[in-house]
Amino acid sequence: MIRLPQGPPVTFRNNFLWCHIFLVTPLSGRMAAPLPRNLSVPPKALLLAVCTVFCVAQGGLAQAGVGAWLADPLDTDSGLSASPAQPWATQATLPDLPKLQGLSVEEQAQIWTLPQLTAYALAHNPQTAAAWDGLRAQAASLGMAKSAWLPSLSLNTNFSRRQAASTAGFTVPARNSANPNLTLSYTLWDFGLRAAKVDAARAQEWVAGFTQNQNIQTVAFSVAQAYYQLLGNQSLVLADEKTVAENQKNLEAAEVLHRAGQATIGALYQARAAMAQAQSTLAAQRQTVRSSEGLLASTLGLSPQTTLKITSLKLGQEPPQLHSAAKTLMHAALTANPTLQQARAQVAVAQANVRSAKASGLPSLGVNSSYGYLYQGGFRPGDTWTVGFTLTVPLFTGFNTHYQIRQTQALRDQAQSNLAASRNSTEATVWQDFHNFQGAIAAYPGAQSGLENAGKALEVVQAQYRVGQATIQDVLLAESTLAQARYTLIQNLVNSYVALAQLSQAVGIPLGENAP
Predict the structure, then answer these.
(1) What helix, strand, coil percent values describe the chain, rounded to 5?
(2) Nearest CA-CA partner of 226 in 114, 303, 120, 101
(3) How many structural domains comprise the chain?
(4) If you ran DSSP here, which 8-state letter would residue 189 be given?
(5) What residues contact 415, with CB distance under 8 A and at least 6 apart?
(6) Is residue 280 assigned to a domain?
(7) Is 46 part of a structural domain of the chain?
(8) What is the 3-state secondary structure (H, E, C) of 367-403?
(9) Which of 152, 280, 345, 456 has the largest CB neighbor count within 10 A?
(10) Measured between alpha carbons, how far is 192 from 190 in angstroms, rounded to an integer?
(11) Which residues are registered as beta bridge partners of 366?
């Protein structure tokens, strides 16, 4: 054996000097075994390389610090920022962002209706595409579960080349061998384990299907909400334009009366202030329209910069009507609401998982068969085959199966409780949305009457102001009342359509007339 010098640690330079002295000095004592005769590398050269690597490594560790090197031997901290205050600069190559869809020339020129917008959104919105991909993935999972009913067949081949050297100094000739093996296995009986896994996978597919339906309804409602909001904001722009025109008439009348000496300068200033306020409101409302246009385009999977042409909202039209009662709608939601059906499917998944957990602790019986062929240099080829049965009886798994059954039973009870909560939530949502819609419908006649009376009142006050029987304050108050009446009627009409769309989403089926 080689004896290393004893004593305190030495530096890199001393280690290298010691290695040199050690190598040039004849070795004393006996080695554990003689070196092989066919060793092509001189012993001193080999030992010199080993000592050099050892000395360089020890010197590097002494300079960099063994503790720092052991803390991060693969230098993973090199990509971190210098301090928490500095942002992280990534060098990663991330996937490209998907390109947004664009409209054709014909689509940009057409006037879109709500059904057309909804159909386009369902086909191009990434949310519906992701839900459909999830359904496809669950369908593949069902196929994976069903594959357990089929036998499995595998082929493996070993290729090797073997050569051995004896301690006496001679070598055995090299020998090549190949050993292909074909293995067939099939489970004959497993006490319902495969059937339970198939049922669980099928129920998971139901969950994914109802999730897709839920995403479809969510996207459809988002389109309807953005559509009606854009209609309302466009109508508010028209209302603000009428308000600006009315204030322009009031300002012109105030200027005429002021020049005639029948109105004070204060009345003129009030008319100018009302005009400036109306113009400011109109400018802000036009920007709100642009924001609503971007939101509608985004729900369709388009760039927010896309401009869509839609029909205008008519204030004289009647709001949507609904002839179903709340009780009828709640009953329909029990079988049509996708969220509620998804909760029911989750219960089916949990029940199948309980059966699977119980079957995993029972015996299973399988059959196995294999055939192999051996090619070996210097010998004649030979083949082997086996056929046998395998009986697996779980005796003790450290109570793993016991707690797995308890876990699945608890998850089943949780799924049933979630189903009960989902039913209560669905019925409560349908009830509230129904009465919100009825409230918007009930308020519409009053809003319509308020707009008509406010318009007539403004005409009367303006006529009185021209002959000096009313002040500018009376005119501005009447004009403000008319503007507020327009806002109330527009908002009431938009709310009625949005409430109907929301009620349709809660029930799970289209209701009434959703588009103006």
Answers:
(1) 65, 10, 25
(2) 114
(3) 1
(4) E
(5) 343, 346, 347, 349, 350
(6) yes
(7) no
(8) EEEEEEEEEECCCCCEEEEEEEEEEECCCCCCCHHHH
(9) 345
(10) 6
(11) 187, 390
Is residue 327 in a domain? yes
Give residue 77's identity as a one-letter amino acid code: D
Q: How far apart are CA 248 and CA 272, in angstroms?
A: 9
Q: What is the pLDDT of residues 138-194, one digit of tens each?
A: 999 999 999 999 999 999 998 888 877 777 767 767 788 888 999 999 999 999 999
And the tokens for 29? 């004592």
Identify which of 338, 349, 344, 347 has the alpha carbon closest to the alpha carbon of residue 202. Answer: 349
**The CATH number of the domain where 404 resides is what?**
1.20.1600.10
Alpha-carbon span 505 to 38, nearest angstrom:
85
d(CA 487, CA 359): 66
Domain coverage including residue 245: 193-507
pTM, to two decimals = 0.79
Query: d(Cα 501, Cα 275) in Å, to the nearest integer?
Result: 38
**Any bridge partners for residue 373, and if so which?**
383
Is 397 domain-assigned? yes
CA distance 490 to 102: 31
Q: Which long-range contacts (CB under 8 A, 24 or more apart) does 18-26 make?
A: 19/48, 19/51, 19/52, 19/54, 19/55, 22/51, 23/47, 23/48, 23/51
Tens digit of each residue's pLDDT (9 = 90 or more) over 435-487: 999 999 999 999 999 999 999 999 999 999 888 889 999 999 999 999 999 99
Burial class (CB in 10 A: 0-12, 13-18, 19+), 371: middle
